[in-house]
UniProtKB/TrEMBL annotation:
<dbReference type="GO" id="GO:0005783">
    <property type="term" value="C:endoplasmic reticulum"/>
</dbReference>
<dbReference type="GO" id="GO:0006612">
    <property type="term" value="P:protein targeting to membrane"/>
</dbReference>
<keyword id="KW-0812">Transmembrane</keyword>
<keyword id="KW-0808">Transferase</keyword>
<dbReference type="GO" id="GO:0019706">
    <property type="term" value="F:protein-cysteine S-palmitoyltransferase activity"/>
</dbReference>
<dbReference type="InterPro" id="IPR039859">
    <property type="entry name" value="PFA4/ZDH16/20/ERF2-like"/>
</dbReference>
<feature type="transmembrane region" description="Helical">
    <location>
        <begin position="79"/>
        <end position="96"/>
    </location>
</feature>
<feature type="transmembrane region" description="Helical">
    <location>
        <begin position="233"/>
        <end position="254"/>
    </location>
</feature>
<dbReference type="InterPro" id="IPR001594">
    <property type="entry name" value="Palmitoyltrfase_DHHC"/>
</dbReference>
<keyword id="KW-0472">Membrane</keyword>
<feature type="transmembrane region" description="Helical">
    <location>
        <begin position="190"/>
        <end position="213"/>
    </location>
</feature>
<feature type="transmembrane region" description="Helical">
    <location>
        <begin position="102"/>
        <end position="123"/>
    </location>
</feature>
<keyword id="KW-0012">Acyltransferase</keyword>
<feature type="domain" description="Palmitoyltransferase DHHC">
    <location>
        <begin position="159"/>
        <end position="272"/>
    </location>
</feature>
<comment type="similarity">
    <text>Belongs to the DHHC palmitoyltransferase family.</text>
</comment>
<feature type="transmembrane region" description="Helical">
    <location>
        <begin position="46"/>
        <end position="67"/>
    </location>
</feature>
<dbReference type="GO" id="GO:0005794">
    <property type="term" value="C:Golgi apparatus"/>
</dbReference>
């Protein structure tokens, strides 16, 4: 019997402050690099500007990876998300606010405040850590763990998986989310979905607001006159919000599909590690073939019910 405790140690305070500083500097660098797109391509169609923004995003991400590998400088991903949110809020308050009605203003400010609260709560939430004494089959193999003494509760509660980022076991483990700085498991999966929906709603509203601003100040039609820095930032943050929205809609759709099938991201990607997802069938040539099967799928209604723990 091995006593399993949370193996991830919190970072020392000075390291945490250092990483947050790196994150805030990289957000400023990133957002001002993005503002170069409308600065030099204001006459180009939106789709071209969007593609260029995506290229800038990839280049900056690559640069961040390079800094980490060569210089050993690390940023904190949740701090990066947080400072991007603050930056967009600042652009809204300083530039875009004047172009939108007070009612939309209240809604947008409220959404941002809720997102900040949500980010803090998911960062400190317990995803469903398994800390009771139990014997675990090979750690890196990530085999499913069924502790005989803890069989009560939902099916999902018994599906304990190993998070390689945090080196710990989590009930109903879905995936490790670097952006939210935590594992997503049975206990915070619903919060994760709500937060994702919150980001989608806020981004959508921001796109509407910044578009209103652009239309009012006629940046889009006024191709000959050079836009000011604040106008560039209004457009570049709008492009950023569109990119975010697109990939989050794709991610959310896929995630909801997984919930309807009662399968978690980790299980979906690494199903060959978990025996219960494997079915050995004989192919026509007489050889054994391993096929995917999902023993947890009880139909959409039951699966969603189990996810929401209504049973
Ligand atoms: Zn984790």
């Amino acid at each position: 019997m091995v006593q399993f405790q949370d193996q991830s140690k919190p970072l020392p305070r000075w390291k945490l402050i250092g990483r947050c500083t790196v994150s805030s500097i990289s957000v400023l660098f990133f957002q001002f690099s993005l503002s170069l797109v409308p600065r030099f391509f204001s006459a180009s169609p939106l789709l071209i500007q969007l593609s260029l923004s995506a290229v800038v995003l990839l280049v900056i991400l690559g640069l961040g990876r390079w800094c980490r590998r060569i210089l050993g400088v690390r940023a904190s991903a949740p701090a990066f998300v947080f400072f991007n949110l603050l930056f967009i809020w600042a652009v809204y308050l300083a530039v875009i606010r004047e172009a939108v009605s007070w009612l939309i203003g209240i809604v947008f400010n409220g959404e941002v405040i809720l997102l900040i609260i949500g980010l803090c709560s998911i960062l400190s939430s317990n995803p469903g850590l398994v800390t009771y004494g139990s014997s675990f089959p090979n750690e890196l193999g990530g085999s499913s763990v069924a502790d005989e003494g803890h069989n009560e509760g939902s099916d999902l509660g018994r599906r304990v998986r190993y998070c390689r980022s945090c080196k710990r076991y989590v009930k109903g483990f879905d995936h490790h989310c670097p952006a939210f700085g935590n594992c997503i498991g049975q206990n915070n999966h619903a919060l994760f979905m709500v937060l994702l929906a919150g980001f989608l709603a806020t981004e959508a509203l921001y796109i509407v607001c910044s578009y209103q601003f652009a239309a009012k100040s006629q940046i889009i039609d006024r191709a000959t006159l050079e836009p000011s820095l604040s106008e560039n930032l209004a457009i570049s943050t709008m492009l950023f919000a569109i990119l975010q929205l697109v990939w989050q809609v794709v991610f959310m759709t896929w995630h909801m599909h997984c919930i309807c099938l009662n399968i978690r991201t980790e299980e979906w990607i690494n199903w060959k590690k978990y025996p219960e997802f494997q079915q050995v069938v004989q192919s026509q040539s007489g050889e054994n073939e391993v096929r995917f099967q999902n023993p947890y799928d009880k139909g959409i209604a039951e699966n969603v019910k189990e996810f929401l723990a209504l049973e």
